[in-house]
Amino acid sequence: MNVPSVKETTKPSNFLRQIIEHDLANGTYTTRQWGGTPGDAAHHAQGKLDPAKIRTRFPPEPNGYLHVGHAKSICLNFGLARDYGGVCHMRFDDTNPEKEDAEFVRSIIDAVHWLGFGWQAFGDDNLYHASDYFDFMYRAAEYLIEAGLAYVDEQSAEDMRANRGDFGKPGMNSPFRSRTVEENLARFREMKDGKLADGAAVLRAKIDMASPNINMRDPTIYRIRRATHHNTGDKWCIYPMYTFAHPVEDALEQITHSICTLEFEDQRPFYDWLLEHLAETKTLPDGRVVGGLISQPVPRQYEFARLNLTYVITSKRKLAQLVKEKRVNGWDDPRMPTIVGLRRRGYTPESLQVFAERIGVTKSDSWIDYSTLEGCLREDLDVKAPRAMAVLDPVKLVITNWNELHGAGTLDDCSAPVHPHLPEMGKRNFKFGRELWIEKTDYEPVPPKGYNRLYPGNRVRLKYGHVIECTGAKLDAAGQVSEVHATLVPDTKSGTPGADGIKVKGVITWVSVADALQAEVRLYDRLFSVPQPDTGEQDFLEELNPDSLKVVTAYVEPSLALAKADDRFQFERHGYFVADRVDHLAGKPVLNKITGMKDSWAK
Ligand code: ATP
Ligand code: MG
Q1: Residue 10's pLDDT is what?
Q2: Residue with the nearest Cα to atom 26 of ligand 1?
Q3: Per CATH, which fold does 307-389+517-603 belong to?
C-alpha cells in the first residue's frame, strides 16, 4: 500500500465532521451570542454575535501528565475548531478539590502548545478553570430545588446504594424525596454553611428511580466535602459532582460540540436533561417566572472511542505508579507514552497530528497497533531529518596498506549529502584514514550463507569512501576480534571516475578514528513486552520489557558536533535518533533512539 506522505494527507471525513457540517449548513448556531467570557444567559445576551462558528473544549483534570490518548483528544478538539472557523477552549476541570498541582497545569499547557495548538481567538484568551463556575453551579442547584427538580437526601450511603436498584431491578424512592421546596432549600443552605458533616447529605436531581438508565435514577449533584480548593480555598464545603459540573461548564462557555469518550454515553441523557431544564423558563406556583439560566441552543455531547494503543498503558494512575516505583526515570522518560516522554523520545508534533488524523474517530472501541504511530514518525522524519553515519557497536578496522598508498598520518576528505532528496541542505564532510570504526557485526571470520560484508577475501564498499578487501582479524587474549584488517583497493573512491569499476555486493557504514565523536546512545525499545499489558490477569508490572533500555558508547560522524538538543537524525542503516533534550551537550552528544528504519518488532 502506498502510504500518503505527511504533506499529502487529506483529512478523512468522520461522523463528527459530518455533524458539524450539518450544523453549519443548517445554521444551528448562527444566532448565538458571546459575552466575551463564560457566563450565564444574561451575560451572553449582552454580547455580540459569536464570531466563532463552533466552540469545542479540551477539559483535562490537572492531576497528571497528558498521554498519547489525550493527544488524540487535543488534535480532535483543537483540529475541528481550526478546520471549521471555531475556537477550542483550554479548560482545567478542577472541580475536584483534592487534586491539583501547578506542575501538572504547566505541563498540560506546554503539551498543547507543543502539539501546535493555542486557545487565543477573536481577541479572547479562552483558558478557563471550571472552579471559577462554582458560584453559578450553586445558583443552578438552588434553581433546580426551586423548580422541584432536586432534593436533599439524607439516607445513609448504604441505603442509597441499595435503593438505587440495578440493571434488572428498578430503584426505590428515597423517603426524603417528597420534601418541600422550602425544606430542601433550607437544608441545602445548611449543607453549604457547614452545618452538616461530610457525607451526611447529598443533593440529588429528581428524575426517575425506575429509569432503565441507572444514571437517571436521581443522580447526586452535590456532596459535602471539607477540603481546601487550590482556587477557592475554604469558601466551599460542598462540591458539585462531575456529571453535574461538566454540562454546566460547557453551557457557560457556549460550547457547541462537547466531545468526550464513549464511557460517557450513558451520561448523555442526564447532560441533556440538566441543560434543558437550566435553559427553559418556568412559572412557579406563586406566579414568579424563573429559569432561563443558560443560553440556547444548549451544547450537545458526542462520544468517540478512546485511543487504545498496543504495548502502551494510558491510565494516569498506572503511569504515576511507574514513575513512583522508579520503573522509569520520570514522567518524561523516553519510554513513557506521556506527551513529555514522546517529545523527549524524539517524536515530532507533526507526526502525532498525522497519527491522530490517520486513526480517525469511531464509535466503537478498537486497538491501534503501535507500529502505526512509529510509521507516522518515520514518514515525517524521512523527509526532513539530516543523515549521518554512526557506529553503535564499534570495532576497529585497520587499512593495512594505507601508509604505503597515501603516506603515514594522512587523511582523505570524504563527503555525502545531508539529505539524499534535499540538495539545499548541503553536504557533510568527514575524513577517511588508516583506522576506522565499523560495526562488530560487519565482520565474520566464517561468513554465514548470504553474508556479503567483511570476511577474509571479500570486498565491500565503505559508504562514501573506498572499496576494501578483508584480509583477516586480530584476536585478543579472550579470542574476541579486536581489530579487523583490510587493504584498500586503489582508485575506488566514491564519486571519482571509474570508482564503480569494481562491483561489490556489500556496502557498510563507518566513521574514522581521526574525527569521529564519542556519543552516549540510549537504545530504547518498547516498555512492555506484550501488546495489551493492562488487560490480562497478569499485573502490568510483570509485563515490563527488561530490555527496554540499553546504553551504549558509540562513535558518530563529526557533523554531530553541532547538534543541539532536540535535533533529529537518521543514522544510516540504524534508524532515527534525537539529541536528548535533557542530557545532551554540544561536543558531548547524548542521543536517544527514536525508532528503527523499519518496523522490526513484528518479526
Ligand atoms: P485517566 O482516566 O487516565 O485519568 P482521563 O480520561 O480521566 O484519564 P482527563 O484529564 O479527564 O483524563 O482527560 C481529558 C480529556 O482527554 C477528556 O476529554 C478525555 O475524554 C480525553 N482522553 C483521555 N484519555 C483518552 C484516550 N485514551 N483517548 C482519547 N481521549 C482521551
Ligand atoms: Mg477524567
Answers
A1: 62
A2: 69
A3: Ribosomal Protein L25; Chain P (2.40.240)
